[in-house]
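Worked example

This section walks through a single chain of length 495. The input is the sequence exactly as stored; nothing has been trimmed or padded.
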Amino acid sequence: MGSSQRKKSRDIVRVGNSSPFEAPGGSQPPERERAFLVGLDVRTRRGTKGTVTAQAAVAREAAALQAAQTGSPPRSNGKPRIPEFDADESLAELRTLAESAGAQIVGEILQRRDRPDPATLIGAGKLEEIAGAAASVNADVLLFDHDLSPSQQRNIEKIVQRRVIDRTQLILDIFARHARTREGQLQVELAQLHYMLPRLAGHGVEMSQLGGGIGTRGPGETKLETDRRKIARRVRNVEGQIENVRRIRAQQRQRRESAPVATVALVGYTNAGKSTLFNALTRAGVLSSPKMFATLDPTIRGVDLPSKRKVLLSDTVGFIRNLPHTLVSAFRATLEEVQRASLILQVSDASSRLSAEQDAQVEIVLKELEAEKKPRLRVMNKIDLLDDEVAQSLQADAAREGSKTVYVSAVEGTGLDTLLERIDKMIDEDKVSRVHLLVPQKEGKTLAMLEARGRILSRKYRDGSVQLEAEAPASVLRRVKQFVVAPEFKSASVK
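Given that input, the structure is written out below as tokens.
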């Protein structure tokens, strides 16, 4: 068998319609773009998959730490075995991203090469084959599971005679689709403008306005001319508006921080169940969907802890492997909630084989936000998808003292009480103390406040007064310090 035949035999090609995509609300769009997916599996000379970048090295190191903490089985050399994204799983993730963008998948191809082609990524010969396969299913657009340089994108488009979109542009398009608030729309537009700016060179009338990916959303709707000077002016304008948003958000945060209320931020890989968990804890009713990046605009709601303290829970945008840097930068105003949080809840999909690798990708973004040293509690979600015996064993192991992992099912409500108790122990703001009080019965408002915002451990009535043993936050004890009668109450904590 010749070398060309051997190379061809390693390629995987699938052509055919996927299941129909339903738009939000159950109505199907009148026209959906027909997308053909292209994946690339690069093997290094040592036989490993993928190219080892600095980001991948950080991810592997973080994943190794996660696996060591969770007791993953070691390799023969003693290092933890880290399941990594292989080419098929990466292509499956691209398929999910494309469906989230509203595309109809009509075919896909996965090519295996020793190294990427610098001009066309996968080689001109393979592109001719892809062009024929895409034409046979009448594909509108080719989606590459890889970031393309501007020259690569132009070279590929000349050969296949179809629109070509890389992974970054696809993610940007999904963000544009899901942005609801003015703040979110501005942040997406800024990221899209930064992405498109280096791609202006070499384009003529076909780039007379910015197009936005699958559905030409985002800046394309504003019909901006692609002249560099005009785009640079628009970038400055959007950055100014985002800076105003950041100032307003900082003022709001300052008002919140003036009260002793801690903020807890939910972070995690996209589709790990953060919004479902957020709804289960707060009953906020925010959109939870199996589609990737269903949550884009941040939401903050109050949650009552077992100690009767209140914390603010913040739902944030999901992270993803190789999250475009332009998005992290554009969404910095939103992600500041993570930077300022008292506690980070890192939500993982317990049913995913790649949870350690996904956590490693989250770690990369947290480092970029300089939030990796924040107190953190790991929440393994979706245990309802595990075998019952396995789920019970994991919960029992996590229940031991000092564990920083909690296993929950946001859908079924399993483990949420344990999660709230663990959050309660890790929050330092508005510390809870145990005191003895002697409150006159006529102080009805004081007694009602203690009942509502503290825990009454014992109660005795004596000579027109109520003798109480209670646990309450410092903010409550400051208001009743004149009734404290026992030495257990330290006056320094309520001054």
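What to look for: The chain has a mean pLDDT of 77.
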